[in-house]
């Protein structure tokens, strides 16, 4: 776990993020998205600061962070490969594809490759249901995905030939 | 020469960015939305004598030869002829999606040239009461699944006394098999803005929010850009098109919780809380966002409003069947040969949609069943495909219209596994507020596992459990999860009997995790 130490820089940046949204109606989710974009996860150290700034209890802030699948308490790999597992993709063999990809990468769901470069996550619908199964990595989307296309996606992200 | 290459996420997933880059070296490329024929994506179009001709599907490897065909006007194996003459296009009644795939989604000028803003101008002219009357007369019902009459909802909010009211657009399109909201926000975001501005004027709301799921980064980017363009053009702001009505809006991004598609859960999420469902009453129309009167409508409901205001509610109500008025963007997905979005009046049979329009399965095997309406929708067996596509009509087959997505499965589908998935999805996505959903779904997974191991005494228990969830849950998540489960069990009992599977391991137990 590589939480940023609570140093002056961390608090300064956190204050900036809070200040950017504080005047909005319902500012907490936009703030959490920005925090995660900044540090790759929502550091636990941010929670009491948020609670104080927004007039909430720490428990309330923690409750929100832990409710949503998107917010992580630890950083993931440099790239995140998402494979859709919802029904439309299942109807086109998403389960078999997921098995192949997990085997090829040597990691299971939610795990990161030992070099820290790639995390594998399931996703429930990218809205690409008419060209299933689908995968996503950063800005890249793959329809009618198969192992070869996923390998190519991973390779183009600078992952080397291992995957 | 002007060339179009879609920017829609589905087209991008099939290589449209590479194709656009290659063609951009030679031609002026406009990135449009998708026409909805996903099996033809990337669909490249070129204008010749005022008619748009198509080539598709153009993979990156075809870009060079298609470029040559465009340049020389020569033959090409991927040439489709005039796009609007294709049978799939001609058979549609594209009202809400009229401009999707046609215009540059971020050009206010093109939007207006193709009929945009006429609805908003008329709305400003006739005033709030008559706007609500037009929407009521159109018979428009919630396209997100609940099917509540939009006009009645607006009337309630319009009549509520409050210093501040809101328009909230539910763009948390989490249902597998559904992509109409995404396609519209990427292909014609201005029509949603126009619809929300009309809603704002109708009920007296000055602020709107579009709550978009985080899984749709392209839709988020395009909606935000379109809002910027709309502000510049005076469509949003202190005086909408100079009318004196103030209305502005912004995008809010969800955080991966399926349950936030439920309107009260969405409102809590928008307020920065856990996306937990609220008990009704009070209804959001009276006590919604921050406790104030709020219209919560789905993307397609709001995007249908500009057409209704332009052409009149009566014109819209002429289409459709029974209490299902107007058109519905049918999304044909999953194991289907011609998948995509097909906008048509209500009333086509499922068989027409799946077999004639969709062309049957992609695998070439017989169709076994189709799940209509997302993860909480029933599996309709192929022998019930004569049911007409409409809210009440599907209900006669214990089905839901939901978001009008249809996911097709061939005869290799294992209905027990799909039923298990539905329960597990409910367990993972449950907000935890009510017991039937939170605990029932977990017991449901365990009971289906027992049945899979050969213990058929689990079948009556599962049936009983589904009944409890259906009637005892607070919202549609726990209340509708029994639909896929019971439809699978009722129509395909053979998939639930005589199984001898080993006890599931921890690892195999997280299909929906």
UniProtKB/TrEMBL annotation, chain A:
Which Pfam family, an example, fits this chain?
2Fe-2S_thioredx
Annotated Gene Ontology MF terms?
Answer: 2 iron, 2 sulfur cluster binding; metal ion binding; oxidoreductase activity
Q: Which cofactor does it need?
A: [2Fe-2S] cluster
Q: How is the cofactor bound?
A: Binds 1 [2Fe-2S] cluster.
Keywords of the record, alphabetical order, are: 2Fe-2S, Iron, Iron-sulfur, Metal-binding
Which residues are noted in the entry as [2Fe-2S] cluster-binding? 84, 89, 125, 129
Q: Check the record and name the CDD domains matching this protein.
A: TRX_Fd_NuoE_FDH_gamma
Family recorded in the similarity comment: Belongs to the complex I 24 kDa subunit family.
Query: What is the protein's given name?
Result: Formate dehydrogenase gamma subunit
Q: Which organism is it from?
A: Paracoccus versutus
Automatic annotation (TrEMBL), chain B:
Q: Does the keyword 4Fe-4S apply?
A: yes
Residue ranges of the region described as Disordered: 494-513
Superkingdom in the source lineage: Bacteria
Keyword Cytoplasm recorded: no
PROSITE patterns per record: COMPLEX1_51K_1, COMPLEX1_51K_2
Which keywords label this protein? 4Fe-4S, Iron, Iron-sulfur, Metal-binding
Question: Known Pfam families for this protein?
Answer: Complex1_51K, NADH_4Fe-4S
CDD domains in the record, alphabetically?
A: TRX_Fd_FDH_beta
Please state every residue range assigned to the domain named NADH-ubiquinone oxidoreductase 51kDa subunit iron-sulphur binding. 416-461
Q: Which InterPro entries match?
A: NADH-UbQ_OxRdtase_51kDa_CS (IPR001949), Nuo51_FMN-bd (IPR011538), Nuo51_FMN-bd_sf (IPR037225), Nuop51_4Fe4S-bd (IPR019575), Nuop51_4Fe4S-bd_sf (IPR037207), Thioredoxin-like_sf (IPR036249)
> According to its UniProt record, which cofactors does this protein need?
[4Fe-4S] cluster; FMN
Query: What Gene3D superfamilies does the database record attribute to this sequence?
Result: 3.10.20.600, 6.10.250.1450, NADH-ubiquinone oxidoreductase 51kDa subunit, NADH-ubiquinone oxidoreductase 51kDa subunit, iron-sulphur binding domain
Which SUPFAM superfamilies does the record match to this protein?
A: Nqo1 FMN-binding domain-like (SSF142019), Nqo1 middle domain-like (SSF142984), Nqo1C-terminal domain-like (SSF140490), Thioredoxin-like (SSF52833)
One molecular function GO term is: FMN binding
First and last residue of the signal peptide: none
Into which family does the record put it? Belongs to the complex I 51 kDa subunit family.
Protein name (Swiss-Prot/TrEMBL): Formate dehydrogenase beta subunit
- The protein's organism comes out as Paracoccus versutus
């Amino acid at each position: 776990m590589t939480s940023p130490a609570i140093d002056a820089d961390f608090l300064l940046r956190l204050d900036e993020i809070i200040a950017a949204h504080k005047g909005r109606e319902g500012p907490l989710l936009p703030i959490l998205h920005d925090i995660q974009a900044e540090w790759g996860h929502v550091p636990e150290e941010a929670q009491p600061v948020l609670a104080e700034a927004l007039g909430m209890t720490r428990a309330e802030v923690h409750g929100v962070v832990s409710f949503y699948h998107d917010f992580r308490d630890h950083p993931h790999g440099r790239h995140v490969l998402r494979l859709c597992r919802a029904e439309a993709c299942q109807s086109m063999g998403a389960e078999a594809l997921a098995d192949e990809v997990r085997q090829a990468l040597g990691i299971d769901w939610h795990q990161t490759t030992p070099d820290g470069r790639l995390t594998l996550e399931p996703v429930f619908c990218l809205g690409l249901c008419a060209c299933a199964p689908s995968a996503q990595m950063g800005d890249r989307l793959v329809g009618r995905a198969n192992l070869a296309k996923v390998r190519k996606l991973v390779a183009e992200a600078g992952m080397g030939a291992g995957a | 020469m002007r060339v179009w290459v879609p920017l829609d996420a589905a087209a991008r997933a099939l290589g449209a960015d590479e194709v656009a880059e290659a063609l951009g070296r030679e031609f002026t490329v406009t990135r449009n939305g998708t026409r909805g024929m996903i099996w033809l994506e990337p669909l490249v179009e070129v204008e010749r004598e005022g008619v748009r001709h198509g080539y598709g599907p153009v993979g990156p490897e075809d870009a060079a030869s298609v470029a040559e065909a465009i340049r020389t006007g020569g033959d090409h194996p991927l040439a489709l002829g005039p796009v609007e003459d294709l049978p799939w296009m001609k058979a549609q009644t594209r009202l809400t999606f009229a401009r999707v795939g046609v215009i540059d989604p971020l050009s206010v000028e093109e939007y207006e040239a193709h009929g945009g803003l006429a609805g908003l101008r008329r709305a400003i002219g006739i005033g709030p009461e008559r706007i609500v009357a037009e929407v009521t007369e159109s018979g428009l019902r919630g396209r997100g699944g609940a099917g509540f009459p939009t006009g009645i909802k607006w009337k309630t909010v319009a009549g509520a006394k409050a210093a501040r009211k809101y328009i909230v657009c539910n763009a948390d399109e989490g249902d597998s098999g559904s992509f109409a909201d995404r396609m519209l926000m990427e292909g014609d975001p201005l029509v949603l803005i126009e619809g929300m501005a009309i809603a704002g004027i109708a009920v007296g709301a000055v602020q709107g929010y579009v709550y978009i799921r985080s899984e749709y980064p392209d839709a988020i980017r395009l909606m935000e850009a379109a809002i910027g363009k709309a502000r510049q053009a005076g469509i949003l702001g202190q005086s909408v098109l100079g009318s004196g009505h103030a209305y502005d809006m912004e995008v809010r991004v969800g955080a991966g919780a399926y349950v936030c598609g439920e309107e009260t859960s969405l409102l809590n999420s928008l307020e920065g809380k856990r996306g937990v469902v609220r008990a009704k009453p009070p209804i959001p129309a009276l006590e919604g966002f921050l406790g104030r009167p709020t219209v919560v409508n789905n993307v397609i409901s709001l995007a249908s409003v500009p057409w209704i205001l332009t052409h009149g509610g009566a014109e819209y109500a002429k289409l459709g069947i029974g209490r299902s008025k107007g058109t519905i963007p049918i999304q044909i997905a999953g194991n289907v040969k011609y998948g995509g979005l097909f906008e048509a009046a209500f009333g086509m049979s499922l068989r027409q949609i799946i077999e004639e329009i969709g062309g049957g399965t992609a695998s070439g095997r017989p169709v076994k069943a189709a799940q209509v309406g997302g993860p909480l929708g029933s599996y309709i067996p192929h022998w019930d495909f004569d049911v007409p596509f409409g809210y009440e009509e599907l209900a006669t087959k214990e089905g839901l219209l939901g978001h009008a997505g249809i996911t097709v499965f061939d005869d290799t589908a294992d209905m027990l596994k799909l039923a298990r998935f539905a329960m597990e999805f409910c367990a993972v996505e449950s907000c935890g507020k009510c017991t039937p959903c939170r605990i029932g779904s977990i017991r449901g997974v365990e009971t289906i596992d027992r049945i899979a191991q050969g213990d058929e005494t689990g079948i009556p228990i599962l049936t009983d459990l589904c009944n409890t969830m259906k009637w005892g849950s607070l919202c549609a998540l726990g209340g509708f999860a029994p639909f896929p489960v019971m439809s699978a069990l009722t129509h395909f009992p053979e998939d639930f009997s005589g199984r001898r599977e080993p006890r599931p391991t921890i690892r195999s137990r997280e299909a929906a995790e």
